[in-house]
Amino acid sequence: MTTMTMSSHTSWGTLGPGNCAPCSSYFSARFQPPGSWPASCSQRRICTPRRSTSVIRRLSGRMSTPPLDHCYVMVNYGESAYAMRQCRKFLYTTGFHSLTMEFDLVCLCDFFVAWSQYWHLFGLLIGGVAATKLMRVLSPRQIYRTGIWCLLMCSLLMGLVKDFSLHCGLRCLAAVSCCFMITSGQYIFGDITAGKYRVGTLILYDCFWALGLILLPGLASNAPSWQHIYLGVTLSLLVIVFLLPWTPDSPRWQLQHTKEAQLAIERTVGILLEAARTNGRMHKVSKELPQQLEELRERMLEPMPAVHWMHLWMGQRRSTFHLVAVHMALATFMVVNTGLLLHVRSFGREHLVSNTLAMGLAEMLGCFLALHLTFNLSERKWQWAGGFAIVVGCIGSICWFLAEEDMPEVYGLTLGLLMASLPQAAVACAQSMILACLGELVPMEQRSCLSFSAVTWARVWQLSASFLTLLRQVSPALSLSAFCLLVILGGLGTCCLVTRDKEQPPVGAVVNKGQQLIAFT
């Protein structure tokens, strides 16, 4: 029996779970164990070849060594002939027990990472739609609590299952639970804040996404097996469970959807008074708060003309063009965001910790840049964010021309990381700005419809991100160049966006905004 020891590059990727609790929904989503971390493709292994027939090849004068693959072993026949036999069994010599070893998917490692990540992204798509529809009958806080308990259960089960199909199904359910928390948490933040505080909160909401990415290497670096990674992530979620009693509910939802008027007012008053007490603003609470809320409830329950998806596209041609641009920009940015994080594994296992930290820091810096542009360049913020994405995308595309250059390894790795981190920062900047300021593009009554349409459309296209990373099998530069071209396309779409002129608020809106400011300014 002929044996052969082989090693290849790793596959570390990303993605996989008071008022700090809604923030932690994004943290838990990024903190979910990614498909490529537990499924490392870099273990050292000994191959036992099949004894079936194989094709004997002869070495030509131009080729001194045969092509090697980690699924095949070379058997020499004389001095100038060899046969490539497929491995039928692997004996692993590494200390880390990965999902690749658990499910015996060595020869399908890259596809396994893409397929596992696909189910995570599919869960985010389904979870976003389901959470939005459930908010018609369940409060955001109830959906948030459902998400965290389901996430805990799925994380525990994923560490126990021994079947690959069941593992992918549980990963999809875990992503659905994450999206329940993300959607409901964002709804709560959008309701308990107002004005510039609301915009700033929604922009920095993505920072917890980056924080989970930064902390994930520390959790997984010393884990002896993939099961320990899932266990560590599950135990970290207990912090969010501890914060549940301090998680506020949406006062607007309680006021509008609670059937009994008196109960609705009592619940809303309780939420607002608790917020005012926590923030030391009890002296600003009006003595006529219950009467004001009763009047506001009556106006909120008045029949309003329904806004359907087709109504978004029935305006002027210019506004339709803006809608097309924002759908295109958000879709490309979400694809690139996921794709670049998975692309990090192309730089090798020995550099994964530093590279993953760099990507997380780049994403966080992008969020702060979006905050600066929004508050200081309000009218031209779209053009600045889009222009930054275009410039960075062009710089990243240079890697295609430098791929064939002969340079020291340290220079090549540094240059590759720089060309991946800069687009990640630009994507985080533009994406967080679009998600926070999406309502500025349409009238007030169409904002929720546009938000649901743009995010759902983007998540549909996000499903392709994991498979675009398979281009690295041809060349890592090809995969990175493809993502950089998408960054340029998204930047062009962002540059086309224009903020609508501010509308006069309807009668009674001052009362509502005043109560929001009492709660969380």
Give your account of this protein's structure.
The chain is mainly alpha-helical and 521 residues long. Strands 1, 2, 3, 4 and 5 form a five-stranded antiparallel sheet that branches. Residues 1-18, 42-46, 49-68 and 505-521 have low confidence and may be disordered. The protein contains 21 helices and five strands. Helix 4 (140-158) packs antiparallel against helix 8 (226-236), helix 6 (195-204) packs antiparallel against helix 17 (409-437) and helix 14 runs parallel beside helix 17. Helix content is 62%, strand content 6%. The termini are far apart. Among the domains are: 45-92, no CATH class; 251-303, no CATH class; 307-521, Growth Hormone, Chain: A (Up-down Bundle), CATH 1.20.1250.20. It is a multi-pass membrane protein. Keywords: Membrane, Transmembrane, Transmembrane helix. InterPro entries: MFS (IPR011701), MFS_trans_sf (IPR036259). One of its GO terms (cellular component) is membrane.
